[in-house]
Amino acid sequence: MDNAVYWYAVVSVLLFLKMFAIAVYQGFHRITKMTFKTPEDAAFVGRDAAKEELPQVQRAARAWSNDVENIPIFLALGVAYVWVGAAPGLAAWLFLTFTGARYVHTLCLLAGLQPWRTVAYFVGVGCMFVMCGLIMSALH
Which residue ranges does UniProt annotate as crossing the membrane (predicted)? Predict the structure, then answer.
């Protein structure tokens, strides 16, 4: 298997697991505190609907939202990267660095750690810009 294809597959799974973990994190906090904003969820456990989501759930929702803005773009660029054969030797570094940055970004967002959250965000975006340059270079 091509090195770039291999690493693309690995990070795709790792990014899925990270996003799934955010959903589990939200569910854990809702269930352990029996606090649900959605009326039917609250009624299901015999509670009134909460006026606001728990702070932990709000932070996780922001992490999810940021992932939805970044991960699909990365995955699309990754497909293009593999298809055009852009610098296969750098694929592991770029793909794993992006993925690591997304993990760090989420952990920092959940823990409220600045400036590390912003640093992690820009590391991930930087990887995507490098990928763009390498894709375009491979097309010439």
Answer: 6-28, 73-98, 118-139
Torsion angle defined by CA atoms of residues 27, 34, 37 and 18, in that order, rounded to the nearest 10 degrees: -10
**Do 87 and 77 meet the contact criterion of CB atoms below 8 Å apart?**
no
Burial zone of 95 (CB within 10 Å; 0-12 exposed, 13-18 middle, 19+ buried): buried
Distances (CA, A) of 57 to 31, 71, 102, 111, 122: 11, 20, 18, 12, 24
Res. 140: pLDDT tops 90? no
Read off the CATH number of the domain in which 30 is found: 1.20.120.550
Q: Give the pLDDT of residue 36.
A: 92
As a whole number, the mean pLDDT across the chain is 96
pTM above 0.70, yes or no: yes
Q: What is the largest CA-CA distance in the chain?
A: 63
- Which of 83, 81, 106, 79 lies closest to 23 in space, CA to CA? 106
Q: Taking the alpha carbons of 50, 56, 57, 62 in that order, is the dihedral positive or negative? A: positive
